[in-house]
Amino acid sequence: MGRIVGRLTMSAILPFSSGRVQYLAERYGVVPGLSDHTLERAVPTAAVALGACVIEKHVTLRRADGGPDSGFSLEPEELAALVHDTRTAWQALGALRDGPRDSEATQRPLRRSLYIAEDVKAGEELTPRNLRAVRPGYGLSPKYYDVLLGRRVTRDVAKGTAVSWELVG
């Protein structure tokens, strides 16, 4: 017996819901998808945005030619628009990453980051007097300012040094 690798929920029979896409993936351990028997593009696009990896649509060259599925079949231009919309939704999901993208490298010098504002000896605490958020952005993000206040440096640090986690204990 073969393994089921995908399971679709049918929008014409069951109302589409975000929970159903996730439920199918978790319950059956399969790639979730949508079998959509409507002329709409919004539901399959939303399904992709919620994790659906397969979209089934009926397609015809011309609805006017008739046929049992023609009433809910997309014509080529509509299919092309659906492909565009779902690709856009998929790309909008992006990938999880921490930190700036490679394309933002040229902007890094324009960002603020944490720097040592006056010489600090090994063992001394970081304080508002010796820790500042300034440009360029080669040190730790200013979001760590409060976390770093009161922490002790592990070595002598010169004024103007970009702060890194290696400097604090």
Automatic annotation (TrEMBL):
Domain AFP-like: from-to ranges: 113-169
GO terms, biological process: carbohydrate biosynthetic process
List the PROSITE patterns hit by this protein, alphabetically. Answer: AFP_LIKE
Q: Which GO terms describe its molecular function?
A: N-acylneuraminate-9-phosphate synthase activity
Domain of life assignment: Bacteria
Short name of one Pfam family = NeuB
Question: In its UniProt entry, what is this protein called?
Answer: N-acetylneuraminate synthase
